[in-house]
Design a protein that fits this description.
Number of helices: 34
Radius of gyration: 32 Å
Structural class: alpha/beta
Number of strands: 32
Largest sheet: 8 strands, mixed
Helix content: 40-55%
Strand order of the largest sheet: 13-23-22-15-16-17-18-14
Distance between the termini: 19 Å
Strand content: 15-25%
């Protein structure tokens, strides 16, 4: 019943039904939340009546009375969406305390420190969340009292100190709101429920939903639960534990515990907790009880559990369980281990790994042979290494990220409001908090390297500095963090390519068993082809030949070719490029021996190979000042050619097959290089399977003309070498007209490849660089577009064009092979669409091949099971 009760409420109800020690309570449903918004952010009287009825039942169950001056019931008010959103919405603890019930609590528990500590926590939390008072006003006063008392921890304050804080906090409320702190528990309860409902649309929750594709309309449930207290003394405490290690996936109970504390102390990271072993040492029977419960919960839910619990004077209470957030590395190990243990099947193991979450495993790690200046050590919260400039707040992290800098967000502890800064950062470092704190959980969720609880550092926000005993670092200084070891290193350090774990290799082998689409790679060099093969590519789906011309040694020859005044001069310049292109093709064919290699003939407009006009103008001016006549003539000729080639809209200008038609010698020379390289390697005994693809075709006549040029050139090479090789010739479809007339184009094409990046641009009329840099973010923020169409395939528009092209192309060629190149080929929903329309292959950049393999396997499984 996740959708109705929220995941938290549903799991609490289920644990109660299992007979686990769960504090009693009730849940206000997500439908009540939606009604709250529909009715102008008010709680309907019928729902208020139901809340009071459920509260009365809770009173009967607990044997306490809400607001009673001698035996008060205190409750927590917790949010809970159907999809886990850790820390994004609000929670209020100790609700029901006032000047009278706090006295009853003192009398009942005979513990002034506990009662006053709970009351001051409640006032701060309620005032911040419900009354909207800046939390720093309370934190500043708390720090001031701690300094006066000469203590470091909240728990070291005396009851008198805490009573002083309560009075100070009340004065803050009166000053900021003009009203006294509310004393009526029922008024407190309804206000808290409304505030938790209202937190569904706070900026951090809205931002989190957007990046995780969680719908806005579902709303949050609110669970009201009897309070149990971990701040009752030395045999009380609070903890968070994982049934397996969330960073490594090792099958061991892993977590943290804090004596004499409440749950928010750990989650918020305001205190650094201790390992679970402290609970085992001091309360062994309680630990054993919890260990048994944790094992049972993992078996029941068939997944790793993240469990919040409290120990009140030796008695254990489970407050929450949920599927644990974990690193990509841990997730893969856990999925494979559970499949091998027989807990889940191989299909489910594959389905549990989000292809997008694999990106951190493609990250480099610190070179083990490098000399490091380690300046600090914290807790290894989220694996991977990152180098960047130090920034001290989320806004600055976003600003520096937008200007192209890699940043490390450094904070005392992160809060949910920092989510946008964490997303913009290469890594996160905190001086407080544990591996179950907000910073650690969110970093693992996003795959961002993180080190937390590095207590040897001090953050000075006024001076924007980070201090250790030996080093002072300023904002903008460079550090490196290793989230796998907890090390903080001064400066930039060398990194090494990733190595896949045996579990990751196993998962990829399983993916190959289930996928039906082939997964190729898009490469530009022999080195990339070698990497792609290591990543499991089954061939090359796209080799962009133009990037081979960008080599500094080759560019002058390309320039001479473009400046040629006639075909004879152009062919002479091109002949110099044949050995160079052949060298690259040799390397790619060798790397992919036995597998097909699809090579795209030159695509971009010729002016892209010429110098920047501004830079050329500066060079010309320098030549004139120097009086170098020969250089002046050369630069002026180059400038004239650039002006002649200039186009107002080069994206739809003289490029692609249009170059091959107007300057056929360019495509002839490329075809020769491909064929000669293939035949030479064939003579060496290598299996070579080249394919040629023609770009930016919009009309069948273009395809026919280029095919004739390519075939004629191939026959010439075959005659010279007295050997031949099969070279299929396909079409690269990137334009809507090509989709609509694919039946005619396919008459001259042996296969079709869709370039979804450019097809998206032409379908929307977007220039990707301009759109993403100027207005696309506004479209997404304001729901004008549901997703970035360059990341998630637009199935309604671009997808429909693809369907039409496939229907048209296979009209007369039922067995016509089709595939896709572009960034969409590793995004799971886009790949599912491609699976369902009958695509034969997808092609991704080498680093995304593992993601594409898993996405393809998931698509095949989802299609077969109709998921």
């Amino acid at each position: 019943m996740n959708e109705l009760l929220g995941r938290k409420g549903a799991n609490l109800a289920e644990m109660s039904a299992l007979g686990l020690p769960v504090p009693p309570g009730f849940t206000i449903t997500t439908s009540a939340c939606r009604r709250f918004y529909d009715e102008g952010k008010t709680i309907h009287p019928d729902i208020v009546r139901d809340i009071y009825h459920a509260l009365h039942t809770l009173e009967e169950t607990s044997g306490k009375r809400f607001g009673h001056p001698s035996n008060p019931l205190l409750v927590s008010v917790r949010s809970g969406s159907s999809t886990s959103m850790p820390g994004m919405m609000d929670t209020i603890l100790n609700l029901g305390l006032n000047d009278y019930t706090v006295a009853a609590l003192i009398k009942h528990k005979e513990n002034k420190h506990f009662a006053y500590d709970s009351y001051r926590r409640f006032i701060q939390m309620f005032s911040s969340i419900v009354l909207g008072i800046n939390d720093s006003l309370f934190e500043d006063e708390l720090e001031k009292v701690k300094r006066q008392a000469n203590v470091k921890q909240d728990s070291q304050l005396t009851p008198d100190h805490l009573l002083d804080l309560i009075l100070i906090y009340k004065e803050i409320v009166l000053k900021e709101t003009g009203h006294k702190f509310p004393q009526d528990p029922k008024q407190q309860l309804l206000a808290a429920i409304g505030a938790v409902f209202d937190s569904w649309y706070n900026p951090r929750a809205t931002f989190y939903r957007r990046i995780h594709k969680i719908p806005d309309h579902i709303g949050t449930a609110v669970t009201i639960q009897q309070m149990v207290f971990g701040n009752l003394g030395s045999n009380s405490g609070t903890g968070i534990a994982f049934t397996r290690h969330p960073s490594t996936g090792e099958n061991e109970l892993f977590g943290e515990f804090m004596f004499n504390a409440q749950g928010e102390d750990i989650v918020a990271g305001i205190r650094t907790p201790q390992p679970m072993t402290v609970l085992k040492e001091r309360l062994p029977e309680t630990f054993d009880q919890f260990d048994k419960i944790a094992c049972n919960l993992e078996k029941h839910y068939r997944d790793v559990q993240d469990i919040e619990f409290t120990v009140e004077e030796g008695d254990l209470y489970v407050l929450q369980t949920r599927s644990a957030k974990r690193t990509a590395e841990a997730n893969i190990k856990i999925a494979v281990d559970m499949a091998n243990e027989g807990v889940i099947g191989r299909e489910e193991a594959i389905m549990r790994v989000d292809p997008a979450a694999i990106a951190p495993l493609m990250q480099h790690t610190i070179d083990p042979t490098a000399e490091l200046n380690v300046i600090g050590k914290g807790l290894d919260a989220s694996s991977g290494a990152a180098t960047g400039i130090i920034v001290f707040d989320a806004e600055e992290a976003e600003r520096q990220h937008r200007t192209g800098h890699s940043v490390i967000l450094v904070r005392q502890e992160t809060t949910p409001e920092d989510i946008h800064g964490i997303l913009a950062s290469a890594g996160v470092l905190t001086t407080r908090g544990g591996v179950t704190s907000h910073a650690a959980v969110v970093a693992r969720d996003l795959g961002t390297p993180s080190v937390v609880g590095c207590e040897s550092f001090k953050v000075d926000m006024e001076q924007r500095e980070l201090h250790t005993d030996t080093v002072i670092l300023k904002e903008g200084d460079i550090i490196t963090i290793c989230g796998s070891t907890g090390r903080v290193i001064l400066g930039e350090v060398p990194l090494v390519p990733p190595k896949f774990s045996k579990e990751f290799c196993t998962l990829l082998e399983w993916a190959n068993e289930f996928k039906t689409m082939r997964v190729y790679s898009s490469v530009n060099t022999p080195q990339e082809a070698e990497l792609a093969r290591k990543m499991g590519a089954e061939g090359v789906g796209l080799c962009r030949t133009e990037l081979m011309f960008m080599d500094p040694e080759r560019l002058p020859r390309v320039t001479r070719m473009i400046l040629a005044r006639n075909q004879r001069e152009r062919k002479k310049a091109l002949n110099e490029l044949i050995p160079m292109q052949k060298y690259d093709f040799h390397g790619i064919f060798r790397a992919m021996a036995g597998k097909q290699v699809t090579i795209r003939l030159i695509d971009p407009p010729l002016h892209e190979f010429l110098p920047n006009p501004s830079a050329l103008a500066l060079e010309l001016e320098r030549a004139r000042v120097a009086g170098d006549t020969k250089l002046i003539e050369e630069k002026e000729a180059l400038q004239q050619r650039i002006e002649m080639l200039h186009e107002l809209n080069p994206s739809f200008g003289h490029r692609g097959c249009r170059i091959g038609i107007t300057y056929p010698e360019i495509y002839e020379i490329q075809t020769r290089a491909i064929a000669e390289a293939a035949l030479e390697l064939k003579a060496e005994g290598l299996e070579v399977y080249p394919r040629i693809i023609v770009p930016l075709v919009s009309d069948w006549r273009e395809m026919k003309k280029v095919r004739e040029t390519v075939e004629e050139t191939l026959q010439q090479v075959f005659s010279i070498y007295r050997d031949r090789i099969d070279v299929p010739i396909g079409v690269f479809i990137e334009l809507p007209r090509a989709c609509m007339t694919a039946d005619k184009i396919a008459q001259y094409a042996d296969f079709i490849t869709f370039g979804t990046n450019d097809l998206t641009q032409s379908a929307y009329g977007f220039s990707r660089d301009d759109a993403e840099g100027k207005y696309l973010a506004y479209y997404l923020d304001n729901n004008i577009l549901p997703e970035n169409p360059f990341v998630y395939l637009d199935t309604e528009g671009v997808g429909r064009l693809i369907e039409i092209a496939m229907e048209q192309g296979r009209k007369n060629k039922p067995n016509l092979k089709t595939g896709v190149c572009g960034e969409h080929t590793s995004e799971k929903d886009s790949v599912l669409f491609l699976q369902n329309v009958g695509m034969n292959f997808i092609s991704s950049v080498p680093q995304r091949i593992p993601s594409a393999r898993i996405a393809a396997a998931q698509a095949a499984i989802r299609t077969r099971l109709r998921l």
